[in-house]
Amino acid sequence: MKKRGAIHHLELYVSNLQESLQFWDWFLKELGYKEYQQWEKGKSYKLDYTYLVFVQVEEKYKQNPYHRKGVGLNHLAFHVNTKEEVDEFARAVKERGCTLLYEERYPFAGGQEYYALFFEDPDRIKVEVVAS
Question: Is residue 66 part of a domain?
């Protein structure tokens, strides 16, 4: 597996670490990530040579809310192997009470040849699951 140019890790600061981890722990483990590191104010998950880090934002920075349409990260997209896996995530995400995006156009919100689910994490970061 070639690594050159692949993302090494992504670090996300979250408003409520415990709430975010309830979502991300489930979601990432479903995708095959394993717990990697943990400390008082953060936790990471690793799949192959890429890992994702979640850190509790300091109180003094909470007044700057995240919005995916502002400057910065718009969304994180993850591969799954089949359309059925996308559908399974759609059911599970609804059961967890997450906000679904573009639900009226599901599963083709990205186009007729693009089978995907779009939803938000607890901090309203857009997450995408797409059939490869």
Answer: no
Rounded to 5 degrees, what are φ and ψ at 71? -65, 135
Q: Is residue 64 part of a domain?
A: no
The span from the CA of 18 to the CA of 8, in Å, is 24
Can you tell me the distance from the alpha carbon of 75 to that of 69, in angstroms, rounded to the nearest whole number? 10
Using alpha carbons, select from 43, 41, 52 the residue that is nearest to residue 7. 52
Question: Tell me: the pLDDT tens digits for 76-107?
Answer: 999 999 999 999 999 999 999 999 999 999 99
Are 44 and 83 contained in the same domain? no
This prediction has a pTM of: 0.89
Do 48 and 99 lie in one domain? The reply is no
pLDDT in tens, 43-68: 999 999 999 999 999 988 888 777 77
Predicted local distance difference test score (pLDDT) of residue 35: 97
**Token pair of 111, please?**
């186009």
Of the candidates 90, 123, 127, 120, which has an alpha carbon nearest to the alpha carbon of residue 107? 90
Q: What is the pLDDT of residue 1?
A: 61
Number of domains in the chain: 2
